[in-house]
């Protein structure tokens, strides 16, 4: 692919500096997410020239087909990656859960920001306000296109019915409120919160009702893997606990060969997290100098991963929990910034490499445990039935 030049500007004093362009989808949620990352970068690097470039992606154009039927996870990300490759943009902000567990060659996730509420939420039609999934009338229709949500909730709330609903968050809320088609819809609490719609959340679903999607609630910054300066710049946005949780979740999903079109769900927790360590970075050479050169790494902590796979109606499922230590082992803290060191698509060279390895291992071990109990068969049938729908 043709690579264009980087963008530079000259200020009033004749000083030339680089402009960093952030690519975003045009939906309101994508804009809000991108703006929040741009603001954080501005706080950390006040001199930085940032420009936001809005782009419509295929996923935004095909609004009437269920996401799980279109299948491809790269739907929302491909056009943005093309722009990255052509140097039209330098950074792209995504919801981590929309990024495949294996990125195309040449790209990496340079930052995973602090996870917001990872759980799913119930948004009720105004006429049902005060109810819960439990107390909604028999045969109430719940809108969701997520196989993961539908599978878990069908099993747990057999009196309810489930129907696809597509479109961005604004469209979905409108479809809910202005018609009588749905009694409620299920959405990620994090997305609702970012839109300022917390007041529409009538119920947060805990893991006993509905476990969340891999990476849900965390924002990710995707960059060109060869751009070590930009990698270094965005790496200060990494939230270590979120990084380790998301590495284990993504390793789990990758090993199961799941995408956004299979009913796979997780729950992760870090326990005993009183202590933390400041680890000084030896990388002093940021693009502009006065940037923070340390990052906090959690020590003596345990990472718990619960993972599950479901048949489409939830009647068949496998669920297991495993844990590992993510204590910093001192050995491999602060790897060189190296485009080759990626774990499930994430480059986090300032977070203890040993802890990242153990988090990744945990995800693989749990996936293998479920595979040994028949997870592959459950997912194959789910995929076939979904394609035949
Ligand atoms: C993926 C799924 C959905 C999105 C599948 C799933 C939901 C699709 C639907 C992989 N991406 O969760 O099982 O409900 O039809 C998406 C949302 C966010 C990121 C919206 C949402 C915001 C929350 C976040 C769509 N991607 O899930 O309500 O940043 O995690």
Descriptive report:
With 389 residues, the protein is α/β, with parallel strands linked by helices. It is 30% helix and 24% strand. It is built from eleven helices and 16 strands. It has helices at 28-44, 58-61, 67-70, 78-85, 147-156, 169-178, 189-194, 228-235, 240-256, 353-372, 375-388; strands spanning 7-10, 16-25, 49-55, 91-95, 107-112, 120-124, 141-143, 161-163, 184-188, 201-205, 219-224, 264-271, 276-280, 294-298, 302-310, 317-325. The strands form four sheets. Strands 1, 2, 3, 4, 5 and 11 form a six-stranded mixed beta sheet that branches. Strands 8-7-9-6-10 form a five-stranded mixed beta sheet, with helices on both faces. It has a three-stranded antiparallel beta sheet with strand order 12-15-16. Helix 9 runs parallel beside helix 10. Ligand DPM is lined by residues 67, 95, 97-98, 144-146, 148-149, 187-188, 190-191, 213, 216-217, 260.
Short structural description:
With 389 residues, the protein is an alpha/beta fold. It has helices spanning 28-44, 58-61, 67-70, 78-85, 147-156, 169-178, 189-194, 228-235, 240-256, 353-372, 375-388, and strands at residues 7-10, 16-25, 49-55, 91-95, 107-112, 120-124, 141-143, 161-163, 184-188, 201-205, 219-224, 264-271, 276-280, 294-298, 302-310, 317-325.
């Amino acid at each position: 692919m043709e690579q264009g030049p980087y963008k530079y500007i000259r200020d009033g004093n004749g000083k030339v500096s680089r402009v960093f362009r952030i690519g975003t989808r045009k939906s309101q949620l994508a804009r809000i997410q991108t703006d929040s990352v741009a603001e954080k970068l501005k706080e950390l690097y006040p001199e930085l020239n940032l420009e936001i470039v809005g782009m419509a992606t295929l996923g935004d154009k095909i609004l009437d087909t269920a996401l799980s039927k279109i299948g491809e996870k790269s739907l929302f990300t491909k056009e943005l990656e093309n722009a990255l490759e052509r140097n039209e943009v330098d950074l792209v902000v995504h919801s981590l859960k929309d990024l495949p567990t294996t990125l195309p060659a040449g790209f990496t996730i340079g930052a995973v920001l602090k996870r917001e509420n990872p759980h799913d939420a119930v948004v009720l039609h105004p006429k049902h306000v005060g109810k819960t999934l439990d107390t909604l009338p028999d045969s109430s229709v719940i809108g969701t296109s997520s196989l993961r949500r539908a599978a878990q909730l069908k099993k747990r709330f057999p009196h309810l019915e489930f129907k696809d609903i597509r479109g961005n968050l604004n469209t979905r809320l409108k479809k809910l409120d202005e018609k009588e088609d749905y009694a409620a819809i299920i959405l990620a609490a994090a997305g609702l919160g970012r839109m300022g719609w917390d007041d529409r959340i009538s119920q947060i679903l805990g893991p006993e009702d509905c476990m969340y999607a891999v990476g849900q609630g965390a924002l990710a910054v995707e960059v060109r893997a060869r751009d070590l300066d930009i990698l270094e710049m965005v790496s200060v946005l990494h939230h270590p606990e979120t990084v380790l949780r998301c590495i284990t979740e993504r390793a789990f999903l990758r090993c199961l060969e799941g995408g956004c079109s299979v009913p796979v769900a997780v729950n992760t927790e870090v326990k005993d997290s009183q202590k933390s360590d400041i680890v000084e970075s030896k990388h002093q050479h940021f693009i502009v100098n006065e940037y923070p050169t340390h990052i906090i790494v959690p020590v003596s902590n345990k990472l718990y991963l619960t993972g599950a796979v479901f048949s489409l109606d939830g009647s068949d499922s496998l669920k297991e929990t495993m844990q590992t230590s993510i204590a910093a082992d001192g050995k491999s803290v602060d790897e060189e910034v190296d485009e080759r060191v990626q774990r499930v698509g994430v480059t986090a060279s300032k977070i203890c490499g040993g802890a990242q390895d153990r988090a990744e291992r945990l995800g693989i071990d749990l996936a293998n445990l479920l595979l040994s109990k028949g997870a592959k068969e459950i997912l194959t049938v789910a995929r076939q039935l979904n394609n035949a729908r």
